[in-house]
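Running this now, will post back.
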Amino acid sequence: MDRRSLISPANITHNAGLISSALETIFSPNAPELSLIHIKRRAMATDFEISFPLGTKDAVLMAEDCLDLISVLENQLSVYIEKSEVVNINQYAGKTPVIIEPNLFYLLQKAKSLSHETNQGFDITAGKLVKLWGFFKGPKRVPSEIEIINLLSEFGSDSLILDPAKKSVFFSKPEMEINLGAIGKGYALDRVKGLLLNKFGVSTFMIHGGKSSIVCGSSLQNQQKGWPIAINHPWQPNNRIATIYLENRALGISAATYNNFESNGFRYGHILNPKTGYPANGVATCVVAAGDATSADALSTAFFVLGADAAIQYCEKHKEVGILILPENEKEQVLVVGNLAAEF
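Update: finished.
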């Protein structure tokens, strides 16, 4: 469905979710046709969970292989693990080109491309901005305007120099650091999806990371519309915004519900605008459906930052993408634009 619509918050149904929500996953006990087996493990500071139809052969063994892969990727991508490949890049790429693992090189290429597509609404090179606000290891604080202005000149995706022949990365701004927090979970889900399809030949599954990155395979039996994913209000978890149906697609959900702090009566969320240096505002939740979880993750961050007008413009050029935006202001209407199978 390629459409644009605006839904009044007054018409949003107030009941629990079906399978997954923005910040609380609920597998409905009232839907017996969704008989699933769930296997989960902690990684990347969140819970990853894989769901198969009940009766799927070797489900637990397959899930263990998939979750092992996620653990390997965490050790490669995390800025919190001292010996990770990303930490090594941040230490040395400002001095000399660093040759990296080919799949990680692809991820950096993808991230740079998405940064350009979104006019820097999403930017992995803003790692030091995350640290400046204390969202890395704390303490959380409001930096001075001078600190922010000075730091804005020290990063940008154009300064991420990628050499396809050598599979190397170089920072032309030597103080720059990358942080894959807004894209890493989606990338991990795409890698797991590839493992399930190519190694095990399994096509019916749902995987989520932290309940905010979701990838689905083929539809369940008796679910012809696809996997029903319930999107709940970020501050009112029993208030369902919409049900989105996914088949062989992914969903990224961005909200600043938990990771935030208050200072002088203002609340500051962890999703930062790389263009201004300040936390994004105006959007309560941004949900993006795309063909892959890597893109869905990054784009949900981008349009949480950029807002409704930018989302509309993006979907006009990228017909495969669908976006739902819930504004912070409850008097404003919910936006649904692009290729999104949603019910309200």
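The two ends are 15 Å apart (CA to CA). More later if anyone needs it.
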